[in-house]
Amino acid sequence: MVDKFCYLGSVLSSNTIVDDDINSRLSKANVAFGRLSKRLWFNHGISTATKVAVYRAAMLSSLLNGCEGWTLYCHHIQKLDQFHLRCVRKIAHIKWQEHVPNTTVLKICDISVIEAFLQNAQLRWCGHVLVIRMDDSRIPKQVFYGQLHHGSRRPGGQYKRYKDCLKSTLNRCGIAPSKL
Length: 180
Known about the structure:
- About 55% of the residues lie in helices and about 5% in strands.
- The protein has helices spanning about 20-35, 35-40, 50-65, 75-90, 100-110, 115-135, 140-145, 160-170, and strands at about 5, 10-15.
- A hairpin with a 2-residue loop joins strand 1 (about 5) and strand 2.
């Protein structure tokens, strides 16, 4: 019996909290970003568009691998966004001391905030697996759409469920949850 273990690059824990997985992903992406510093990010002969394309392909894919199933709180998104913006600022050669707003930096690099990548991945996965391809008789789809007949959640602050994250994403995108 263990509290957490690494399986296919993701850290799985007994309490189903994604903090360890996010920290592992951040460290892996940070190491990969650091290895390309001298050859790519600080090379002024390579265009910003090429650097951003490499960043999307190499860093974001390793950072957000498996994010479709994460149940994220605001502090998780902030941690991921801090790493994302720090990398984008290094790619654009803009230091934080220059007081350039994050929106301007993202516009210069033609990239969006990390939350948009997370929402896009979650909606794509949900539509792909739960709506389009999966048969209604399959257990994962029945569990996802199922409700408890009796019983209630514990009083006080609740742990966020995957359904709660998906519903808030749908509301932010202007999609009615009943239309899913």
